[in-house]
Design brief:
The chain is mostly helical and about 180 residues long. The protein has helices spanning about 15-35, 40-45, 50-65, 70-85, 90-100, 105-110, 115-130, 140-150, 155-170.
Amino acid sequence: MSERGTRRRQPADMAPEEARKKAKEICFDLLAARPRTKDELRQALRRKGFDEETRETLLGKLDEAGLVDDAAFAESWVRSRHHHQGLARRALVTELKRKGVDGAIAEQAVGEVDRDAEEERARDLVRKRLRTMNGIDEQTAIRRLLGMLGRKGYPQGLAYTVIKDELREAGSAPTLLDDVAPD
């Protein structure tokens, strides 16, 4: 029930043309907030009760009009999340797949982040975190840094190498990592 006590009309109760119009409004509202994948729009329309024919017809039209492009979405998502959140390639692929982007498209988009860029971003994250870790013992610092990089999807070998180098650069001799060989 809405605030006025009237029941909202469900898509099944609407005439086909009215249902298409309402579905289009919903998609435009979602796209106005941020770019979306086809699957995100499909799920939103499904939750609102629109039938498969209405959903797929509308998504096809949005695709033809260039308003929904999973490849462009993936490229934009990768740039933003790698730069702002510091996510590694593995985490980015996982997020894109969760958003309904095809695995091949996700891999292609993540290909823009090369190994050097990924390593440099990991170093930035470790340096920033090290500034807040005054007075913490080496083992705790290493555990926290490894956990942070692991949650962001960085490979273990890269994480060990970066942490070891950055601890040395910060003036600490990371004795605990000396015997660990990166993978």
